[in-house]
Amino acid sequence: MDKVVSSAADAVADIASGSTVAVGGFGLCGIPSVLIGALHASGATDLEAVSNNAGVDGWGLGILLADGRLRRMVASYVGENKEFARQYLSGELEVELTPQGTLAERMRAGGSGIAAFFTRTGVGTQVAEGGLPWRYDTEGNVTVASPPKQTQVFGGLEHVLEEAIVADFGLVRAWRGDRHGNLVYRDSARNFNPLAAMCGRVTIAEVEELVEPGELDPNLVHTPGAFVQRVVELTPEQAADKRIEKRTVRSRA
Asked: Fewer C-beta neighbours within 10 Å, C or N terminus of the chain?
């Protein structure tokens, strides 16, 4: 039952080139930066990442992008990362842009054993009709486009079918966790982390504070240990190393 791994390097050692990795976080909030760094150091390449976005230049998934380690991204947002946009528009990276709520539900469905679901989001657009550019060539021509999706009417309204996402690995960051893999996220860092934890066949969690089984209030657990296979305890320095994507300040009154 003890799922604690000695180091982040050991925890990601079996993430092979070509794997699909679901990564928690939103912007830079709650991203598993230590595990991402260990994955980068492992040398794995040709990865497909499922994440709301790709961090920023030089941090988070941005370090994998910068070294050309990602072949494909499933995301809802390209902004804040110039290298992400450059690789997509130059034909170096395939990107499946997905409405944010749909992406969240695709990940949740994957972890719940639901193969697909119908939603109103995207009806009457290229999301349903197909033709969204997934990959360009160096001349800016679309070489891979999204396929049309099945639609069906429920209650007099058209819905589009979306397939669930199941990743080979899930990487998440939690505020507190125990040795059995039960996790608690803090405030907005909860974001996509529970979903990434659910949809990974093997989920690895870095935790800022490791506690013993029984110390977490069961009513406050966000991700049950059944979804988590490995736990990495962060050092105080690693836990404190959190970047701010955009700092907004105002003058004192």
From this structure: C
Half-sphere CA count of 18, side-chain side, radius 13 A: 0
Q: Which two tokens stand for residue 215?
A: 């110390």
Name the E strands within the chain.
4-5, 20-23, 47-50, 70-75, 94-97, 116-119, 133-136, 142-145, 151-154, 157-163, 167-178, 183-184, 200-211, 230-233
pLDDT tens digits for range 129-159: 999 999 999 999 999 999 999 999 999 999 9
Answer whether 174's CB lies under 8 Å from 223's CB.
Answer: yes
Entry field: residues in the chain: 253
- The third-level CATH classification (topology) of the domain covering 4-115+164-240 is Glutaconate Coenzyme A-transferase (3.40.1080)
CA quadruple 144, 121, 20, 167: dihedral positive or negative?
negative
Residue ranges of domains in the chain: 4-115+164-240
